[in-house]
Amino acid sequence: MNRKLSWLGYGACALAGCLWGTGFYFGKLALREMSVGHMVLYRFLFASLGIIPLLWKLRHAGGLAKPAPWTRNEIVTLLAAAALGIPIQFLLQFAGLARTTVSHASLMVGTLPVLLALGATLFAGERLDRVGWLALTGSTIGASLIVLGGHEAGAAGAVPSLAGDLLVVCSLIISLAWILMNRSLIPAHGPLAVTAFGILSGTLMLCVWVVAVDGPPPVATVSLTAWLALAASGILCTAATTLLWNWGIHHVPASRAGVFLNIEPALGSWLGVQLLGDKLGPFAWVGGCLILAAAVTLTARGHKFDAEVLLE
């Protein structure tokens, strides 16, 4: 039974990584018909539909949260983390995607495991050894090669830009702050409860901001393709991945599960090239290989990170 659960855990983490890898592709499809704000709002409205039944089931099963009540400071931390992790992070990330290609944006996400290791070193008292610093340096060089390399238009006319790539990187730095803030809440309340309440409260903040800035989201003018892309990005790439990842990480070692995070940038860049006609120049290929090699090195060597609070 333990062996079977272990294989199921690996499968759940691998499937979560694959679904995360399609997020930018679905987002790009929806961005053809609406603004960044409206696209992100629809994504999280669909994600909330996937989270609410889970909350109801867990609550009635007695497994939503541990007995410890939420204190005022914890609620403030949760709301601050939700604001960083959803409205701010995702609006920046998809504003970057609107200005660059799916392949470039996906490769930038490959720096996340390295950023997690750096954040744990700077703010959580962990130590990064020589190999870790080497991986960090390689990842930084790789990201620089991608954003400063050639910017050639793909078959669909999308052109990567320095501004777009840097916005994606900025969103990842903000996600690091979100992860570190959630870290203090998980021991008392559990990863699923923290993530679910964060998604719901962050979606409410996102709704208020987007409606105030961009107006009500379009409905009648949205094509079936865009609706399917929005539903997939919300239900599959956010709600389902949260459930799969958090279940899988409890049945396999975090150091091994972390390797599956690297499916996202690899699959995302491949989808951009194959389905959207993105073109990666030689510098981008070298940079992408450096980023992926650094990410695999850190996760495969068992560097500790908060795998349970990842939200892509």
Structure at a glance:
The chain is mainly alpha-helical.
Architecture overview:
The chain is mainly alpha-helical. It has one domain (2-309). Helix content is 74%, strand content 0%. It has 14 helices and no strands.
On the 0 to 100 scale, the average pLDDT is 81
Strand content: under 5%
SSE order: HHHHHHHHHHHHHH
DSSP helix fraction = over 70%
| Main sheet specs | none
Unreliable parts? none
Shape: globular
- How many helical elements? 14
Q: Radius of gyration from the CA trace?
A: 19 Å
Total DSSP E strands: 0
* Alpha carbon gap, first and last residue: 31 Å
Structural class: mainly alpha
Q: Please give the domain count.
A: 1
List its traits:
312 residues, 0% strand, mainly alpha, globular
Write the layout of secondary structure elements.
Blueprint lengths: L1 H20 L1 H9 L4 H25 L11 H27 L3 H8 L2 H12 L6 H19 L13 H22 L2 H4 L1 H24 L9 H25 L5 H4 L5 H13 L6 H19 L12
Helix pairs in contact: 1-11, 1-13, 2-11, 3-10, 3-11, 4-8, 4-10, 5-8, 5-13, 6-7, 6-8, 6-14, 7-14
